[in-house]
Design goal:
The complex is a heterodimer. By secondary structure, chain A is α+β, with helices and mostly antiparallel strands. Chain A is built from four helices and eight strands. In chain A, α1 runs antiparallel to α2 and α3 packs antiparallel against α4. In chain B, the strands form three sheets. Chain B has a three-stranded antiparallel sheet, with helices on both faces. Helices cover 22% and strands 29% of the residues of chain B. Classes of the chains: A alpha+beta, B alpha+beta.
Chain lengths: 186, 174
């Protein structure tokens, strides 16, 4: 196996690679192998199973390849694995990573509009969402929707944000809680 | 006493604050709690509001659980209060009233509990269960205490700027 070290020190191109496919063993391995062919370095990533579909989000840098070259190595992988979506898009130099300082939990009887109500309320106050995950649980036929967000309040007034979230909770019949994110050295 | 039906969120009774239990009533509710726990088999704790009784009674029994080698046996606590606590750890919790969801929740590692029949100390998994059940008496569900996203160990290292301190430990599961 060829190991390329120090590629990140050179001037590189960055791409967002997004793939979705019906889950099966080998999707992550195949995409990683393809990216290695163009000396791609996976700088940041999130891969997870969304309702039976494996979703891949990658920020990839390469010292030499252009978008077409990255797409070309991934195209046969898409065909082989029967991926439902595959996108390669150039991205500009990344801004600083988000620095979330609060966590918001939302849960309630499942109905359309929960994510929209909460996120649009946050956006209106200029709160940046750093991470958002949802889960469905509860008894069969009576699903409970749960959402956890890590957000960056920055200079926003936590009290005012909390008031707005309480209004949203009441209007949507869900429970919402805003707390400082625990930062802890282990 | 018969086993009772366990209420499921979003039943609003699960979000209400329970009132102090009076003698007589406390014993009846406790018997129902224990019968309901026993009927469920895998249950390590139950609070009166979960069976629709808004009084401050909980039952906890982790004596058969592999994660609780040290425990206080079968506990029935009337009007329990946590009067001292120390330590802090994250563990995975679920709840009979919210099936099929689990989350990482921060709890005190060791607690002292006062109730109408006395005072005792508890730690580890049993202490976690007692804190979870007493929360029910105040209308607090474990989802109200989610500490962070599921990958919190991974992330907390970054927030703390302590990448060189090792991987920490995975959350305990319960």
């Amino acid at each position: 196996m060829r190991v390329v070290r120090g590629a990140y020190l050179r001037r590189v191109s960055q791409f967002a690679v997004i793939a979705v496919g019906r889950d099966r063993p080998g999707i992550a391995a195949a995409i990683a192998a393809g990216l290695l062919e163009v000396d791609g370095n996976i700088e940041d990533s999130r891969m997870t199973n969304l309702g039976g579909h494996f979703a891949v989000m990658l920020l990839v840098s390469t010292p030499s390849a252009d978008r077409e070259a990255v797409a070309a190595v991934l195209a046969p992988i898409r065909a082989d694995l029967g991926l439902e979506a595959l996108t390669v898009a150039p991205v500009a130099d990344a801004a600083a990573a988000a620095a979330p300082d609060h966590v918001i939990t939302v849960y309630g009887a499942d109905h359309p509009g929960i994510v929209h109500a909460v996120t649009s309320g946050l956006a209106a106050d200029g709160v940046n969402v750093a991470d958002l995950q949802t889960r469905i649980g509860g008894a069969a036929g009576d699903p409970i929707y749960m959402m956890v967000l890590e957000v960056e309040l920055g200079d926003c007034d936590a009290g005012a944000i909390g008031d707005r979230l309480r209004e949203i909770a009441g209007a949507n019949e869900v429970e919402i809680d805003l707390r400082p994110l625990e930062a802890e050295a282990l | 006493m018969p086993a009772r039906e366990v209420l499921l969120y979003p039943d609003r009774r699960l979000k209400q604050v329970a009132t102090p239990a009076q003698p007589g009533e406390a014993e009846r509710v406790a018997a129902d709690l224990l019968d309901t726990m026993d009927s469920l088999g895998h249950c390590v704790g139950l609070a009166a509001p979960q069976i629709g009784r808004l009084v401050r009674v909980v039952a906890v029994d982790v004596s058969d659980h592999p994660k609780a080698p040290e425990n206080n046996g079968r506990l029935v606590l009337v009007n329990p209060r946590i009067v001292a606590s120390s330590g802090s750890e994250i563990g995975r919790e679920g709840c009979l009233s919210i099936p099929d969801l689990t989350a990482n929740v921060r709890r005190a590692t060791a607690i002292a509990v006062e109730h109408t029949a006395g005072r005792f100390e508890s730690s580890g998994f049993e202490a976690r269960c007692i804190q979870h059940e007493i929360d029910h008496l105040d209308g607090i569900l474990f989802l109200d205490r989610v500490a962070s996203l599921a990958d919190d160990l991974f992330r907390r290292k970054r927030y703390a700027g302590s990448e060189d301190r090792g991987a920490g430990r995975p959350p305990s599961s319960s």
